[in-house]
Specification:
This protein is an alpha/beta fold and 341 residues long. The chain has helices at 6-13, 17-24, 32-44, 74-87, 106-117, 134-140, 167-180, 196-212, 229-242, 254-266, 284-288, 300-316, and strands at 63-69, 93-99, 121-125, 128-129, 144-147, 150-151, 161-165, 186-190, 222-224, 248-251, 276-281, 294-297, 324-327, 330-332. Helices cover 42% and strands 18% of the residues. It has a 6-stranded parallel beta sheet, with helices on both faces. It has a 6-stranded mixed beta sheet with strand order 9-8-10-11-12-14, sandwiched between helices. Helix 11 (284-288) links the parallel strand 11 (276-281) and strand 12.
Length: 341
């Protein structure tokens, strides 16, 4: 073992002892060139900090984290696959963490993962970042991209980049289309119990469309559940058993829409003649269901590609301006919607 100490490393690197300490403890506020130089000196001299037996590779700052809100989410899975392919071409290691905690804020989980995994950058899929997240996000000083998440307008966005869609406008277009087809009794199925961020925004879009078309909001038509096929089935069952006049359903996800459609067909009702239905996300489940289910398709590949590009832009230059991108969705009409006379 080399007898070199932290002061020697600082002298060789031409920096202060505090800078070396920050690199050893993997603090993010060190320029990439300086960090690489110090790590190179540490490795060449076989320096082990605090006389511990930790592997020196733990000091590497080439770890990129992907944090996914929730556990079962085919939409995020598609994005993760795309991100993994993009990052595999770079000299970075990728760590994946699914956050299904209901006890901690998403910002708290983010900080825990940065410290635990010694991350050099993070892409956070989903989550809810509101005003109280400000104090956490300001302290990070690490390349961060939040994708497909709810970020309230009063959050200071200077410490991260983001990419997503306009959930309110996208939901509005879907429900407005149902209204234009003559539907007035339109049910709402959402994953509010497990995905409150998108639930709220897409619900606002649903309500906005009803009001624009002169239709009163009826809270008896609202059902909250989970992001599962089973939940969609049960919500549709409860909704239609208590509100037989409903002629259309807007679901905040394709997963729920497929479950709902399964229930509708099990009761000898026809889709779309008895009940029309439209989902959200653009997953292939709805396309290959029979009848095929209309949807609001999110640009999955564009979300993934923009997230990676924004992240590496920050990694290469932390002084660069953060960007916040809103991508367009596509309303896809299939066999699940009929007009009402």
């Amino acid at each position: 073992m080399s007898s070199i100490n932290i002061k020697d490393i600082a002298k060789l690197a031409g920096v202060g002892v505090s800078t070396v300490s920050r690199v050893i403890n993997n603090h993010p506020d060190v320029k990439k060139e300086t960090r690489v130089k110090i790590q190179d000196i540490i490795e060449k001299n076989n320096y082990i900090p605090n006389n511990s037996a930790r592997n020196l590779k733990m000091l590497a700052s080439n770890n990129i984290g992907i944090i996914v809100k929730g556990s079962f989410n085919p939409f995020f899975s598609k994005i993760v696959e795309r991100i993994e392919r993009s990052i595999s071409n770079e000299n970075y290691l990728l760590t994946l963490h699914y956050n299904s905690s209901c006890e901690k804020d998403d910002s708290e989980i983010l900080i825990e993962q940065i410290k635990e995994k010694r991350l050099n950058g993070v892409i956070y899929l989903g989550g809810n970042f509101d005003n109280k997240s400000n104090n956490y996000l300001k302290l990070l000083n690490i390349p961060l991209v939040i994708a497909s998440a709810n970020i309230s307008d009063d959050v200071d966005k200077s410490g991260f980049s983001s990419v997503g869609i306009d959930n309110i406008d996208s939901a509005f277009k879907a429900v407005d289309y149902l209204c234009k087809m003559g539907h007035k009794n339109i049910g709402l199925l959402s994953s509010g119990f497990s995905d409150s961020n998108n639930r709220n925004l897409r619900t606002f879009g649903y309500e906005k469309a009803l009001l624009k078309n002169g239709i009163s909001i009826n809270i008896d038509y609202y059902r909250d559940g989970y992001y599962t096929f089973e939940s969609g089935y049960e919500m549709a069952k409860d909704l239609l058993n208590k509100n037989s006049e409903i002629t259309a359903i807007f679901s905040t996800s394709d997963i729920i829409a497929v479950g709902a459609a399964k229930y509708i067909l099990s009761t000898n009702r026809q889709i779309p003649n008895d009940v029309s239905i439209i989902g959200f996300d653009g997953l292939e489940y709805g396309e290959f269901f029979h009848p095929s289910i209309s949807t609001v398709a999110q640009p999955i590949e564009e979300i993934a590609d923009n997230a990676v590009e924004l992240l590496f832009r920050q990694i290469n230059d932390m002084e660069s301006l953060n960007e916040h991108i809103k991508l367009k969705t596509n309303l896809i009409i299939r066999d699940s919607i009929a007009s009402v006379n």
